[in-house]
Design goal:
It contains ten helices and 38 strands. The chain is α+β, with helices and mostly antiparallel strands. Strand 29 and strand 30 form a beta hairpin. The chain starts with a helix and ends with a strand.
Length: 612
């Protein structure tokens, strides 16, 4: 009987394998907070993993510290028939203090479990006791991946009435329930039957699509400090208290800074000089120590050790600018969340710190963790993101600038000199700016062999033999020049040569036209590609067939392809402008047609025929 049930379960699961990889049968979070600095948090996760694509959901991980103690744990694994195949004890958990951070006062308890069969249902149940760090409560996020459905998920938070608890929600239609229970307030949220999210090309990032809810106290006690999260102004006052009086420098360093900058005429020149000094004298090392990882190391400590995290380096740069009379603002931001919740101030929405320098003619945004970037360059992980400017008066909601689509430029000049057998000498001169420049930064740190291998991936030249390759950086621009030989650039068939016209672009992703689209079209970064290509045909050949010119304009993009003949030279001009933004999913057919047309244009060939 058990075998029959298992086979029936396996059959039913096989019907949905292609659609999803796991089902969250139950996800519950139950929190009892009896004081502003103490809470017991109980978690339960029951997940049916349908196939090997969902194997990652069998892994258990929880973060702990001396302030977050794991007080109980148990686990169980059952097969498709409900037979228990493994019980998991707390003693089987492993502890790791490994992290990407140099110093961290937390550790993880984990179990790296791989299911022996599919389908399999795994139950994990555990309790965390938290003290002195309730700046926010665990968030409600039962759906954490694509192709995972939710049957039942619940959240319960019991706290004293004296604690004002705020909440915010994303992609959840169900309302939060708030009830009185004696001297306590009980907050609950329950959702059920959430369908799996499908990964779709050209759609928003997963974290913006997930159903989530956040809960946090208005007033908090955190690692011995007290603060308020009533709004972003109060958040900023607390953050400012963490950096106050941590900008002291030694007399020797102060003197050095004045020697470096007193002869310079403008504040911008002074910022540039100090920013370059930061590059030469420090390096980034992530540190999560000091008031839960929220407080930067003192400027003097960073100066002495020569390293710091985003907080420490930004505060150190702020201190050096202050010494030479230039005001700057410590600014918190997220490298993942484009938008912050305007009406819900919370620490967890941010994961990074940068420095804002408001000059008379311009506002500079300094990435102090990577001063190798051009000064003031707003990189892709923060461009257009909301941020909180920190000052004595509190936090101020700001948004970083974003580069115009047309300035994210790749300009390629290519000359292709063909032989009678289809071999070619190819010369490539390319400039990339702003966000396209970021994609090429790794080239600067590569040795010659690595660069050549990478160039072979950038260009589409068969049997490429790279004779020469130079790369140069100038601000937010990288220029590369290369000479490439190919023994078989064109395909020879009888008396004809079939010559590819574009060796620098190929095959943009085309969404599935038959799949039901749930998301609008989202283009996170706009860009402009300009190509000037010259193909010199060999003696003894004439042009038999040329591609047609292409001109397309859509709300989300424009493209033109033009071909001109000048003696033995074929001149090709491409111009592709993709416009960042969100576009209705009803425009998907036009979007697909556009991408197909661009791919088709780039993949075209000139046909040459040998003359008699």
């Amino acid at each position: 009987m058990r075998k029959v049930l298992f086979l029936m379960m396996a059959f039913l699961c096989s019907l949905v394998v292609k659609a999803q990889k796991a089902i969250v049968e139950e996800s519950s979070i139950d929190i009892v907070c009896d004081a502003p600095d103490h809470a017991i948090q109980h978690f339960k996760e029951v997940t049916t993993i349908l196939n090997e694509h969902g194997a990652g959901h069998a892994v258990f991980v929880c973060s702990c510290s001396k302030y977050d103690k794991l007080t109980s744990f148990k686990g169980q694994v059952t097969d498709g028939s409900g037979r228990v195949i493994k019980k998991i004890k707390e003693s089987e958990l492993k502890k790791t203090e490994y992290s990407p951070y140099l110093a961290v006062d937390a550790h993880k308890m984990y179990l790296d479990y791989t299911p022996p069969v599919y389908p399999v249902t795994i139950t994990y149940e555990w309790t965390i006791e938290s003290r002195d760090n309730l700046i926010e409560f665990p968030c409600f996020c039962p759906q954490t991946d694509y192709d995972v459905s939710i049957k039942n998920a619940s959240y319960s938070l019991k706290a004293p009435k004296s604690m004002a608890i705020r909440h915010a929600m994303q992609n959840i239609n169900t309302q939060v329930s708030v009830d009185d229970n004696g001297n306590n307030t009980v907050i609950t949220l329950h959702v059920k039957d959430l369908p799996p999210l499908k990964q779709e090309p050209y759609s928003r990032p997963l974290h913006e699509r997930l159903p989530m809810a956040w809960f946090a106290p208005t007033d908090f006690v955190y690692y011995g400090t007290k603060g308020s999260l009533h709004d972003w102004t109060d958040y900023g006052k607390w953050e400012y208290s963490l950096i106050q009086d941590r900008d002291q420098l030694t007399d020797a360093e102060r003197q050095e800074l004045h020697q470096l900058t007193d002869g310079l005429k403008t504040d911008r020149e002074k910022v540039e000089a100090i920013y370059r000094r930061l590059e030469k004298t420090t390096r980034y090392v992530a540190i999560l120590l000091g008031i839960g990882g929220q407080q930067p190391a003192p400027a003097s400590s960073v100066s002495k050790s020569g390293f710091g995290d985003c907080k420490g380096l930004s505060n150190y740069m702020r201190a050096m600018l202050k010494e030479v009379g230039i005001h700057s603002n410590y600014t918190t931001i997220s490298t993942t969340n484009r938008h912050l919740l305007k009406d819900f101030a919370s620490v967890g929405q941010m994961n990074h710190v940068i420095l804002q320098v408001p000059l008379k003619q311009d506002t500079l945004w300094l990435e102090c963790t990577n001063p190798q970037l051009p000064m003031g360059y707003v990189h892709d992980q923060i461009a257009g993101h909301d941020a909180i400017e920190i000052s004595k008066e509190g936090g101020r909601f700001v948004q970083l600038p974003v580069y115009a689509d047309s300035t994210n430029l790749m300009h390629s000049i290519v000359s292709i000199c063909l032989s009678e057998q289809g071999a070619a000498e190819v010369k490539l001169s390319q400039e990339v700016l702003n966000h396209q420049y970021e994609h090429y930064i790794p080239l600067l740190k590569m040795d010659e062999n690595e660069r050549k291998k990478t160039l072979q991936q950038i260009i589409h030249v068969p049997q490429a033999d790279i004779k020469q390759f130079d790369v140069h950086e100038d601000g937010a621009k990288i220029a590369l020049n290369a000479e490439i030989a190919s023994q078989k650039y064109a395909t020879q068939t009888g008396q004809r040569l079939f010559v590819p016209i574009c060796p620098v672009h190929r095959n943009y992703t085309i969404p599935n036209a038959n799949a039901e689209r749930t998301e609008d079209i989202w283009l996170g970064m706009g860009f402009l590609d300009l190509d000037d290509i010259t193909i010199t045909i060999p003696e003894g050949y004439k042009i038999e067939a040329l591609p047609k010119n292409v001109f397309i304009t859509q709300p989300f993009a424009s493209f033109f392809f033009m071909i001109l003949i000048d003696g033995r030279d074929i001149h090709i001009k491409n111009r592709l402008l993709m416009k960042s933004g969100s576009y209705s999913k009803s425009q998907l057919p036009q979007f697909i047609d556009f991408i197909r047309a661009v791919n088709g244009a780039y993949n075209q060939k000139v046909v040459l025929k040998k003359t008699e």
